[in-house]
């Protein structure tokens, strides 16, 4: 009996963090810095890295400059390129894990199957693929780019060749000489296409909507620059600050005055004209929506690759699969040995939401059936002591998500401080009125943004509401999440238990 009690006590933690990508590792570092060591990081895979572990496709690279796409508390003077590749970002996250001594807290191979709030005990019960934990506070850092989305294509199950998503790349399958179909023209696809085009036999690109593509001004960071950043760390801070400032100045064009993006659109058209000489193909590759409505993509190799003789651009969605024949929505047909889906992720319908049951006995997915919404991108009504990292309306269209993550870590730290000050078995429950008021303000500002100018993008949910992007600067978001406003929460205390006389 005593052994079982001890085992139960060991499985209760103050904080459970879900996921070990940038958000989860950042939360773990912040917890340690706040003096909290009673926590676990539950990771379904066998290593850290999140989306930078899962996305290992050929050509995978970040479209945010390296010195801005890193934690401010863990600068890396040795980035090899101005825009780093997947392998360097994943190595950076492994380095952060080791430097901040996070591995003892990480439990690999623990996929969360269900999280349930206990109104009596005021804690979460977390069922994983290996064991069950209880936690006073849950930090959900699963991220919006974690669960791949493959469209329901009639006949796909009967395709005789290889099928995989860009985020689940099959490195054991050789593409040399193969007929490959690339479905989608998003951020992943424009990196994959130039990486595989030289070695495949035939590449068919299914383009439902053409993207705006700007050159990626990437270069090798010199040894002298790296030496300078190591010897004089403030120079790296200056570099990061300049990169941040430039992007902050661009925000008003995205959020208030989309018409100011006209010159950027002209540059993108000039980039297209430079590389695509065929007027017919150029017309098919020219978007009909305002630049910035969808994420602006960066590549200096994409346009040259799709003009090569072994590439066919189908300006229509993949509609049906008949054996090895792929049928587009416009009726055209092509043959393929391999289908690669670059069709994005479950962003506005995250599967984790089906696995979280709150105080009222409903799941987060049910609570969000009319659209995701949370207080300051973190707390959802009906889900006490549950905070998300990269929650609703915290995404960015032109800057580094690490800036938003660090702001949410500030909010998490103050949230835990408030619980400590309140003392005892206590929970903070976001008031529905506060969540609704925050969401109304966000959505009211969204009407003026470029993201709501009429295009269809992964920023929008099924009802056409933008529940993904933050309609302001990162500096503003940091101010708004610097501390917890207790007036936006109900303070929930555990019921007093009466002791029965012996």
UniProtKB/TrEMBL annotation:
What residue intervals traverse the membrane?
A: 12-31
Q: Does the keyword Transmembrane helix apply?
A: yes
Asked if the keyword Transmembrane helix belongs to this entry, the reply reads yes
Q: SUPFAM superfamilies this protein is in?
A: FAD/NAD(P)-binding domain
Return the Pfam families for the record: Pyr_redox_3
Tell me the keywords, alphabetical order: Membrane, Transmembrane, Transmembrane helix
- Tell me the superkingdom of the source: Bacteria
Protein name, entry field: NAD(P)/FAD-dependent oxidoreductase
């Amino acid at each position: 009996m005593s052994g079982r009690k001890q085992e139960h006590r060991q499985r209760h933690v103050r904080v459970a963090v879900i996921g070990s990508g940038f958000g989860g590792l950042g939360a773990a570092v912040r917890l340690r810095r706040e003096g909290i060591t009673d926590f676990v990081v539950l990771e379904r895979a066998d290593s850290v890295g999140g989306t930078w572990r899962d996305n290992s496709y050929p050509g995978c690279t970040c479209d945010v400059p390296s010195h801005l796409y890193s934690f401010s508390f863990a600068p890396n003077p040795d980035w090899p390129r101005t825009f780093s590749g997947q392998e360097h970002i994943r190595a950076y996250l492994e380095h952060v894990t080791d430097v901040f001594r996070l591995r003892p807290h990480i439990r690999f191979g623990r996929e969360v199957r269900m999280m349930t709030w206990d109104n009596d005990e005021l804690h979460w019960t977390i069922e994983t693929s290996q064991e069950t934990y209880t936690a006073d506070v849950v930090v959900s850092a699963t991220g919006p780019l974690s669960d791949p989305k493959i469209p329901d294509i009639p006949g796909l199950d009967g395709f005789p060749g290889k099928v995989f998503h860009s985020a689940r790349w099959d490195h054991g399958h050789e593409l040399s000489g193969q007929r490959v179909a690339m479905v989608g023209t998003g951020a992943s696809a424009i990196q994959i296409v130039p990486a595989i085009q030289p070695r495949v036999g035939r590449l068919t690109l299914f383009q439902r909507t053409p993207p705006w593509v700007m050159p990626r001004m990437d270069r090798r960071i010199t040894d002298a620059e790296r030496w300078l950043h190591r010897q004089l760390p403030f120079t790296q801070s200056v570099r990061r600050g300049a990169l941040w400032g430039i992007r902050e100045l661009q925000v008003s064009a995205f959020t208030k005055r989309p018409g100011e993006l006209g010159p950027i659109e002209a540059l993108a058209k000039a980039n297209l004209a430079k590389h695509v000489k065929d007027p017919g193909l150029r017309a098919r590759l020219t978007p009909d929506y305002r630049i910035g409505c969808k994420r602006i993509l960066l590549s200096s190799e994409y346009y040259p690759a799709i003009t090569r003789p072994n590439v066919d651009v189908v300006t229509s969605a993949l509609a049906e699969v008949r054996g090895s024949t792929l049928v587009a929505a416009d009726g055209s047909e092509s043959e393929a040995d391999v289908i690669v889906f670059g069709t994005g992720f479950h962003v506005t319908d995250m599967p984790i939401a089906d696995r979280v049951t709150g105080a009222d006995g409903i799941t987060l997915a049910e609570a969000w059936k009319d659209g995701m919404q949370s207080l300051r991108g973190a707390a959802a009504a009906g889900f006490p002591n549950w905070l998300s990292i990269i929650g609703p309306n915290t995404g960015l269209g032109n800057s580094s998500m690490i800036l938003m993550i660090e702001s949410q870590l500030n909010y998490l730290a103050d949230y835990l401080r408030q619980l400590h000050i309140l003392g005892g078995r206590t929970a903070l429950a976001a008031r529905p009125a506060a969540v609704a008021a925050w969401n109304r303000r966000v959505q009211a500002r969204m009407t003026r943004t470029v993201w709501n100018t009429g295009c269809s993008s992964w920023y929008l949910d099924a009802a056409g509401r933008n529940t993904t992007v933050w309609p302001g600067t990162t500096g503003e978001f940091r101010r708004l999440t610097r501390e917890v406003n207790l007036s936006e929460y109900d303070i929930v205390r555990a019921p007093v238990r009466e002791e029965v006389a012996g």
